[in-house]
Amino acid sequence: MNKEEIKKDVAKYAVDFVQNKMIIGLGSGSTMGYFIEGLVERKKRGLEIKAVASSDLSWNLAESGGIEVIDINDAPRIDLMVDGADEIDPQKRMIKGGGAALLKEKILATSSDKRIIIVDETKVVTKLGHFPLAVEIVIYGAAATKGKIDSLGHKSKFRMLNEKDFFITENGNLILDVFFTSLRDYPEKDHIAILDIPGVIETGFFFGLADKVIVGKRKGIIEEI
Ligand code: A5P
């Protein structure tokens, strides 16, 4: 099985955790794309659900498949959030934000009763920090904010849309991708130090936000952690 097939497989497996009448929080990314496809299939077979989305892409994908997507402010509750991740360690700590949706994803995840993370086995790591950490920052003083992050001993780069234009998030902010010089022993400390800098809105570190992790492996094996 190649990586895309594994992602499809794990997404299909996770769709079975969705129950009738649930309000589902939709994460973002390619694995989530497959999950939403599976949700649309179940909806066609009679599943009654509503969804809340963490990105325009996930919103449009669900809505075009016939799923009712509601604004988070109109959701009385979110029963279950399903999302992907860029890295996950044995304590289920994660790096997310490869798709730049980290802020909405974290708001949804912290507003949900239960969270399922779906990943292929390449995302499972012993220590976080190989994948660059997305940090959402406000535009005002962005160069100074970058300097303060770099002075913690990291190297960061603005995420670009193309050679000239900065990537702007759906919230109207910038993304700094932070490259660590070593794998992280204390990611909580890194998170606090970065978040403490004025201008930083959120980091892509997610702690305590994975109730169940579903890992897809080669040869079609699926493991629940
Ligand atoms: C989106 O901002 C990220 O947090 C995604 O969850 C993450 O990048 C996983 O994406 P893939 O499923 O495309 O690997």
Fraction of residues in β-strands: 25-35%
Distance between the termini: 21 Å
Can you summarize the main beta sheet?
7 strands, mixed
Please, what is the average pLDDT? 97
Q: List the total number of helices.
A: 6
Bound molecules: arabinose-5-phosphate
Stretches with pLDDT under 50, minimum 5 residues: none
How many strands?
14
Report the principal-axis shape: globular
> What is the percent of helical residues?
25-40%
Helix and strand topology:
Layout: H1 3-15, E1 23-26, H2 30-44, E2 50-53, H3 56-64, E3 68-69, E4 78-83, E5 87-88, E6 94-95, H4 102-109, E7 112-120, E8 133-137, H5 142-150, E9 155-158, E10 174-179, H6 187-195, E11 200-203, E12 205-206, E13 212-216, E14 222-224
Helix pairs in contact: 1-2
The structure holds arabinose-5-phosphate.
Arabinose-5-phosphate binds next to helix 2 and helix 4.
Description:
By secondary structure, the chain is an alpha/beta fold. The protein contains six helices and 14 strands. A seven-stranded mixed beta sheet has the order 3-2-1-4-7-13-14. A four-stranded antiparallel beta sheet has the order 9-10-8-11, covered by helices on one side. A three-stranded antiparallel beta sheet has the order 5-6-12, with helices on one face. A hairpin with a 5-residue loop joins strand 5 and strand 6. Helix 1 packs across helix 2. It is globular, with a radius of gyration of 17 Å. It starts with a helix and ends with a strand. The model has no long low-confidence stretch (mean pLDDT 97). It binds arabinose-5-phosphate. The site of arabinose-5-phosphate has 17 residues, from helix 2 and helix 4.
